[in-house]
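Blinded run. Sample ID left blank on purpose so nobody reads anything into the name before looking at the predicted structure. Input follows.
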Amino acid sequence: MKIELIVAAIFVIFTAQFIYMSSTTDAEYGGADGQAGDVILELTGGNYEPIAEPIWEPPSGEIESLLFGLQAAFGALVIGYFFGYYKGKTIKDQS
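Blinded prediction complete.
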């Protein structure tokens, strides 16, 4: 029962923070890649040319976000599997 209250409190705090920040700021959240490109162009005076080009670019930002999410989910699955495997192995060895 105690853990459910803690999880609920954390959820309420994050939800309240999200709603407050969304309603009081006009911030646009962008990735670091776009900001880094702007800084490089500013530092080089616009003379910078990349040494490599991407092999394939997703057709839209939504597809790019989907692929990033799938990559993160797959990584979490692999890490979770190994943590679970080794935790189960140590519990089995203790028996």
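Unblinding after everyone has recorded impressions. The radius of gyration is 22 Å.
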